[in-house]
Amino acid sequence: MEVHIERVSSLVGFDLDLIDHTFDISARVAEPYDESLSCTLIRTEPVSPQRIKTYPREDEDSIKGSDLASSLILVDLDTDGHLRGYLRASKAWNNMVFLDEIIIDRPCRQLGIARLLMASLQAWTIQVGLSAIKVETQDTNVGANSFYRSLAFSFGGYDKFMYYGIEACRDETALYWYWFSQSPG
């Protein structure tokens, strides 16, 4: 399968409803996070009940895109032009890029699409002279945490109350990962 990453100015016109962006929650990263995330295999603990998580769709303004100098939207399309995955990122106030969203259609995961989208994001970060990429994920998304670590992202901290106002994920903890365009030391 060939992966072709393309930069677009907007996601308007792509049928985002055809993408299955759910993931299974059967475990969570175990506390203390610093120790669990530094192990060869991320330490986890089971979640009960196991469940499937879905994120709400982005609002129309989010997918329209914005100034090409301050944001990046990348897509991967199959040979028929159907969307298999996309990434949205934007420049943040602190000279970093914030990964707003990366979505890969469930049947297309583990094919290298996310890795190539992230490599393009890393190249763009360097090209526009920014210092780092910041990613927020959850302790219940063990696969995403493993993925960011495999890309040489560094665990930067957590927020136990980030999702407190959302009943369905009140017990989840936000975990923050950083990729540095130059060594932070």
UniProtKB/TrEMBL annotation:
GO terms for molecular function: acyltransferase activity, transferring groups other than amino-acyl groups. It comes from the Eukaryota. InterPro entries: Acyl_CoA_acyltransferase, GNAT_dom, Streptothricin_AcTrfase. It holds the Pfam family Acetyltransf_1. Signal peptide: none annotated. Residues 25-176 form the N-acetyltransferase domain. This is N-acetyltransferase domain-containing protein. It comes from Kockovaella imperatae.
